[in-house]
Write a structure and sequence with these properties.
By secondary structure, the chain is of the alpha+beta class. The chain is built from 13 helices and eleven strands. The radius of gyration is 21 Å and the shape is globular.
Length: 320
Amino acid sequence: MLKRFVWKKNDIHSIQLKENVYIIAQLLESPYVAFFNITSERNHFDEKPLDLNTFKPFGVCMVLKGFFKQCSVGKLKNVQPNLNIPIPEIFISSDRGQWGNRSEFSDIELIYNLVRIDPTVGDKGLMGNEIIQYNIDRNDPNMLNNYEIVGYNTGYEFVRRLILSIENGRWIDPLKEQRLLGIDNYPLQTVEEMWQAGVPKYGVEDKDGNRQNENEAAQISYLIEMYNDPFYPEFLVDKVKECILRVVPFIEKGNRDVNKIQSKLDEMTIAINDLADEFGQNNSELETVARESIAATVESVLQYHKIDIVIEDALREREW
């Protein structure tokens, strides 16, 4: 865990994935990073000179700075950077025509396109990136194996991705497979599983004992996983909690009309969707831990008040 991180092109970092698994990452033009299938059990990369020009990167993708603050154990001085790594320009993207009403489509009806992102300009967003191929074949191995989904990688979701890639000997993206194929059969699907497998807690601690005690008293744990994970700024987790708490008084007043409660849940989810940009601006993202934590909290609220709405329907408007 770094106290301070500055993005400098061609810096080499050692990334800790497990107690005894470290890999090498090379910073490219921000926000791109190249990862190499070179591992060490004790972070001994600097013991002998190493020239990455003799290795091909395992994968190149966009990464948030916060990932390095939490997962890097420091820069490597005895490793030479690979100076011939191309920046990817073609990515898989959701269709702009379906954005904002994606919940109205079934998974098989969702459209994904290939878009171009000029490395000198950067990601121009869903509405700005140039579409070069409309409605790709989601089962095409070429799409699955050769293109990243637009977006930043970070947090435990990305740690999981790197572990699975190293252990399987190929560049894996469970989120991409989930979106395109509708399946994610890989292990380490929860943070608890990852911790049991030796993944560090990356500074996780109970930041607010009083908050936890209050939650226990209320029999509902409001976003404890997010509060205890340094990847998520506490003030933003507070905003997510506020969105959820807007639904609670409505239920506590005795409202039991499922349609009206669902409408409130839709408003809550859309409000959380609107926080995505603010998370990104603070080197964070609504990813695996956030999705699980929000879903668990909302499910606890519904179960506590005996509301018969399944969590998939409760969060049907989510875009994270």
